[in-house]
Amino acid sequence: MIATAESLLAQLAAFGVEARTTRHPAVFTVAESQSLRGQLPGGHAKNLFLKPKAGPFLLAVLEEDRQVSVNALGRAVGLGRVSFGSAEELRAQLGVEPGSVTPFGLVNAAPGAVRVVFDRQLMETFEWVNFHPLTNTATTTLRPADLLRFLASLGHQPELLDLASLAPPAS
Fold first, then answer.
1. Average pLDDT for 57-80
2. Residue 170 lies in a domain
3. Would you say residue 168 lies in a domain?
4. How far, in Å, are 1, 86, 144, 159, 162 from residue 123 at the CA level?
5. What range defines the domain where residue 110 resides?
6. Is residue 171 part of a domain?
7. What is the pLDDT of residues 89-115, one digit of tens each?
8. In total, how many domains does the chain have?
9. Which of 155, 109, 157, 100 has the alpha carbon at shortest distance from 133?
10. pLDDT at position 28, please?
11. Distance CA 75, CA 171 (A)
12. By percentage, how much of the chain surpasses pLDDT 90?
């Protein structure tokens, strides 16, 4: 059964995670998110759902302003060339719609089906981080360590990666 925002928030609370959720109009891009977020403290992310030629899908969680070459990211994690997963694959794996990609989607993924890599700077710089709780009409704020602990409790093994070196060449 696919988790809902409400069931996810209940799971976080039951796990002892301090989280605050702010409702807002739907946002589909980082720019839209920046214009509507108001005073949400902490780090904000963009999430890339990627498909390698073989193996599990890859969810890359990057600091919102981070510019990376998708294929450099694929190579950095040992996958080679990657492409964006389709909307159908996103729904099947994470149970979310395009525009709502979030590490919280891992509540719907079987352990090992989606590899998750976090931007080390995002997770180590900010006291609080912000992600959609399975819907792009809300943002949930929590501590990075709590998110990593929660995902591990679901059978996922979050990885931290230094992504600063993966910026695409200047044009």
1. 93
2. no
3. no
4. 29, 27, 5, 10, 10
5. 5-163
6. no
7. 999 999 999 989 999 999 999 999 999
8. 1
9. 100
10. 66
11. 21
12. 76
